[in-house]
């Protein structure tokens, strides 16, 4: 079966879209600012995937005219949100020096790696404290049996909450299970 490649430039040409050139790195910075500012979210520019389906014509010029009639302030509102965020990012950039970057790298490589790999112990301690019991991590031999640790004398396995849907696939764990969900501000724990 033959394969064809259609470049972004060719797509633009086939659809009669003007070519856009941006200085190096600028689109990455604008994208980052937009992610933070949420300038192109549906509440600002409309639900574009729905709008393009309702659009009755086929040309770019007609789309622009049709869209702007329905959302006349959207481009300006999105632009304002993104420019405001870019100014904040520019201010933040002025605070970045070698020392700050080294601190960030150290936090990622040392602290976050350690915490990410050892958070099970923190979960065990939290649940044990809640139940008024002692906790201990599993030995390598116990780990080979699917045990992550003990709350009192009860063997427990610590799994992400997404594991609940996988249990239907037939894996049998003989221990109590503590489920967790990683959140932006910590870990949410669910247990019996």
Give a quick precis of the structure.
The chain is of the alpha+beta class and 192 residues long. It has helices at residues 8-14, 26-37, 42-45, 48-54, 60-70, 74-93, 98-131, 140-143, 163-167; strands spanning 135-137, 149-151, 154-160, 176-183, 186-190. The radius of gyration is 26 Å and the shape is elongated.
Q: Helix and strand layout, with pairings?
A:
Blueprint: H1 8-14, H2 26-37, H3 42-45, H4 48-54, H5 60-70, H6 74-93, H7 98-131, E1 135-137, H8 140-143, E2 149-151, E3 154-160, H9 163-167, E4 176-183, E5 186-190
Parallel strand pairs: 3-4
Antiparallel strand pairs: 1-2, 2-3, 4-5
Structural class: alpha+beta
Distance between the termini: 55 Å
Strand percent estimate: 5-15%
Number of helices: 9
| Rg value | 26 Å
Mean pLDDT: 90
Give the overall shape.
elongated
Largest sheet: 5 strands, mixed
The low-confidence runs, each spanning 5 or more residues with pLDDT under 50, are: none
Descriptive account of the structure:
This protein has 192 residues and is of the alpha+beta class. The chain folds into two domains: 22-93, no CATH class; 118-190, no CATH class. Helix content is 54%, strand content 14%. The chain contains nine helices and five strands, in the order αααααααβαββαββ. The protein has helices at residues 8-14, 26-37, 42-45, 48-54, 60-70, 74-93, 98-131, 140-143, 163-167; strands at residues 135-137, 149-151, 154-160, 176-183, 186-190. The protein has a five-stranded mixed β-sheet with strand order 1-2-3-4-5, with helices on one face. Helix 2 (26-37) crosses helix 6 (74-93). The protein starts with 7 loop residues before the first helix and ends with a strand. The mean pLDDT is 90.
């Amino acid at each position: 079966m033959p394969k064809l490649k259609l470049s972004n430039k060719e797509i633009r040409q086939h659809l009669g879209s003007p070519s856009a050139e941006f200085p190096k790195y600028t689109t990455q910075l604008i994208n980052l600012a937009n992610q933070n500012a949420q300038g192109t979210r549906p509440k600002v520019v409309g639900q574009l995937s729905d709008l393009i389906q309702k659009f009755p014509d086929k040309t770019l010029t007609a789309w622009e005219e049709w869209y702007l009639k329905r959302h006349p302030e959207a481009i300006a509102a999105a632009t304002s949100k993104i420019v405001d965020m870019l100014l904040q990012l520019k201010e933040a950039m002025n605070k970045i020096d070698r020392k700050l970057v080294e601190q960030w790298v150290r936090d990622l490589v040392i602290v976050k790696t350690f915490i990410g790999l050892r958070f099970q112990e923190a979960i065990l301690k939290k649940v044990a404290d809640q139940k008024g019991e002692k906790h201990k991590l599993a030995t390598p031999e116990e780990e080979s049996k699917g045990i992550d640790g003990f709350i009192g004398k009860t063997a427990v396995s610590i799994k992400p909450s997404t594991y609940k849907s996988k249990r239907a696939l037939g894996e049998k764990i003989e221990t109590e299970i503590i489920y967790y969900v990683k959140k932006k501000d910590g870990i949410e724990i669910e247990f019996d």
